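User: structure tokens for this one?
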Amino acid sequence: MNREERKRIFLSLLISLAFVYLLWLIHFLAIYFNIRVAEYGLIPKNFIGLRGILLAPLLHADQLHLISNSISLFILSCIAVYYYQTVFYQATTIIYLLSGVLVWLFARPSSHIGASGLVYGIATFIFFSGIFRRDTQLITISLLVIFLYGSLFWGLFPFIPHQSFEYHLAGALSGVLASYIFRNKGPQRKQYSWEQEGYVQEDFENELEEEIIETDLSNENNPENKN
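Assistant:
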């Protein structure tokens, strides 16, 4: 593992932990000051409820609600920051704000709170980013997300009373949109010469030889990577 790799891992852990820490800090402050968080939630088609677009993802009804979202948010954020660091912040901003706007416009008249919309948004962002880029490694990560969080699919439907499936659905749609918007930014699938017009066999052979040389030089410069 080289220095750049360690830096990416550290940054992904730091950002994910910082956001989860913020959620818990707000939760305990709300308990300490006896604040009824539902009053600051996102209330659809209500002018005062507009503040919930910014506040709702930071508020949780109880500790079980917060624990559930914290674990998922931490894991998914780590993956997203590590693989999509250059577009993560813009994509997350889109998911955060757009999901709130959609809930305010179309959801049931209730107070919607919790970071689950963000969880769904980041999950679908990771999944569809790999699909849109058609990169083998990124698609593998997409499949891993499906394996870990495939059960999230059922949260898109109104099966559980008092659960904001609207926020789940809005977050998921926002994540798909963000992945499409940034499909040409961030990590990209390497395009070989044989995939391009005007390809000749000699170009491919030269390209393959260059990759072998680069791999050898990388191994020489990073002896810790050797077995």
